[in-house]
Write a structure and sequence with these properties.
Low-confidence stretches: none
Distance between the termini: 64 Å
Structural class: alpha/beta
Order of helices and strands: HHHEEHEHHEHEEEEHEHHEHEHEEH
CATH architecture of the largest domain: 3-Layer(aba) Sandwich
CATH class of the largest domain: Alpha Beta
Number of helices: 13
CATH superfamily of the largest domain: Periplasmic binding protein-like II
Amino acid sequence: MNISLRQLKAFVTVAESGSFTQAATRLHLTQSALSGLMKELESQVGFRLFDRTTRQLSLSGAGVRLLPLAVQVLNDIASFEDEADKLKDGRLGDISVSVSQQLAASFMPYFLADFKKTYPETKIHLQDCSIEQVIQQVQSAEVDFGIGPDRVLPDDVEATPWFSLPFYAVVPKNHPTARQQKVSWRTLFKEPLISLTGSFNRHLSEELPADLSERIMAPDYEVNFLSTALGMVHNGLGVSLCLPYAGDWVRQHDLVMMPLVEPIIHRRFYLYSRKNKSLSTIAVLFKDYLLNLPESMFYR
């Protein structure tokens, strides 16, 4: 058999209308064209679908059995087309993004919620992990793209610049520098220093003068998470540093933050993607949304 959707639509419309004349009007066909479609369908199945008299048109026994199936096929096709349209224009789809932990815990929830106001049917899978894992997941194509600070990349991963933020000092409210508009690295480093483990200190040391570089590599305390460092600052164990997007966390710990100067050092962040990997429409829309955010959004 080679049954067409036009034939099925003609069959269902005639059955619903109870009249070839009304069905032809609904389908914008001539009666002869509609009759031709029905003859073709009955020839395909090998039996009559309607019992016809001069005064009445009714479904045959076989027609009664096949009508629900024809309706289901047409509904399934309509659903298929609707889903395809949603995928095409970005109203539907899944996005998988790998994000370094501090970013994922600070402003990413806000960005996700804001994006879903426009695309509510989108499912976004957020993988929060270390920057090293972000790069690995992008390289292995486990995610659509990744987000994190500057890193040396393998050959099959490329980086799109996103934003750049200066470092800030974090001190208790009663600290001598708490009322200052800014503080130098040298002044901050005279205090007990609470810093993060891993590559954080190493990358920062490469941008500081030699004496300050030695200090950042020898902090008084090292912790894995910024939230731990902030808790320690709150309890008077020392001072720390962060980026502006951690402002909400700093205030929640009743602490003060101010720009670090002499020198001013920025941390650059990127959207990472695997080379030659195509993205779905919705993933492209989300990536464009992120890239077009104003810089003020990262100062929380």
